[in-house]
C-alpha cells in the first residue's frame, strides 16, 4: 500500500467539453505511461476513475509517489485564461470523493496543484491550477 501524504486538486486546463478520450490522448502524447490523474470530475458530475489508487499518476512532479491526483474538466475560459469554471455538479462530486478519500487517507493534506510551490506566497505560484484555493475550500474535510 502506498503512503499517501497529499491529495492534489487539479483542473485539466481545457475546454469543459473535453472528453476522457481526449485527456488520455494528451497524456500519451506527452510520453506518459500513466494518466495525470487518478480521478476526473466531468461537468455533469460523473467522477471517472482513470487509475487505481495503488498506482502512481503524473499529477505533480516530485510528489506523485505519495499522492492521489483529482482533476475537474475545465479551468480555462474561452480565451484560454485560467478561471474557476467548475459546475455545481463537479463541486459536489469532488467533495463526495474527498470525503471517501479522507476515510482511507486520514492524514493526507488536501491541496491545489499550485499550492505545492507557494501556499503562503501567491507570488511564488508557478501554476494557476486548479484556479481556486483548494486548501481553504476543502480544509474542513
UniProtKB/TrEMBL annotation:
Which Pfam families does the record associate with it?
Answer: Amidase_2 (PF01510)
Question: What name does UniProt use for this protein?
Answer: N-acetylmuramoyl-L-alanine amidase
Q: Which SUPFAM superfamilies match?
A: N-acetylmuramoyl-L-alanine amidase-like
Q: Which residues form the N-acetylmuramoyl-L-alanine amidase domain?
A: 2-130
A GO BP term here is:
peptidoglycan catabolic process
Signal peptide (from-to):
none
Naturally occurring in which organism (per UniProt): Prevotella pectinovora
Q: Name one GO molecular function term.
A: N-acetylmuramoyl-L-alanine amidase activity
